[in-house]
Design brief:
The chain is built from 8 helices and 10 strands. By secondary structure, it is of the alpha+beta class. The strands form 3 sheets. The chain has a 5-stranded mixed β-sheet, with helices on both faces. Pfam families: Replic_Relax.
């Protein structure tokens, strides 16, 4: 791949996913060795902001946003880990083109309106996959959201086929809580350590 094409491809990934670690960019764009990934990203520094948090985390600066027509401004905030966790699921699911961040799901029945906003949603054909990140929110809020999803499924908000729910959380204890709360749903729950152990 030519240098400019590769750079544009990386910038578009940052537009889609907001923040990416060096190793995540390396995997998504098949940059082979750590040294090569660092070289490629060093050559792109005029388009990127970098945060050092264990490994480098990248996001678009104003020049990078202008180059690929991105209106969304991201900053160095305390919530970046939420995005990094979501990216792990994007990668393990094969970087699906159907991936949409924070798409609202709404169902109205009579005077009752139920709305959920998952962290990401994938729709392949008639089958939905709902992505949820459990990083800093309380387990009580997670359980309330699971109950909403259960009602939405019962009322046909996801169509004929039962959706799949994929969570990523921070600890094994929380993974077990989410699994127990999701009985009867098609669910998988990962922890961050499942992915950090795979990183190059």
């Amino acid at each position: 791949m030519k240098k400019n094409q590769r750079q544009e491809s990386i910038l578009l990934s940052l537009k889609k996913l907001d923040y990416l670690t060096r190793s995540q960019i390396q995997i998504i764009h098949d940059l082979k060795s750590d040294r090569n990934a660092q070289r490629v990203l060093k050559a792109m520094e005029e388009y990127l902001h970098v945060i050092k948090d264990g490994e480098n985390i990248y996001y678009l600066n104003s020049k990078g946003r202008e180059l690929i027509d991105c209106d969304k401004v991201r900053k160095s905030t305390g919530n970046i880990q939420h995005y990094i966790m979501r990216n792990y699921l994007y990668i393990v699911l094969g970087c699906p083109s159907e991936w949409e961040n924070e798409m609202k799901i709404t169902h109205i029945e009579g005077n009752e309106k139920i709305t959920c906003r998952p962290d990401a949603l994938i729709k392949k054909g008639d089958i939905y996959t709902v992505i949820e990140v459990d990083n800093t929110q309380t387990m009580k809020k997670n359980l309330e959201k699971i109950d909403k999803y259960r009602v939405l499924r019962q009322r046909g908000a996801f169509g004929f086929f039962a959706p799949k729910f994929i969570w990523i959380t921070t600890t094994e204890h929380r993974r077990k809580e989410l699994m127990a709360a999701s009985q009867g749903l098609n669910v998988e729950v990962y922890t961050v350590s499942d992915f950090k152990n795979r990183e190059r």
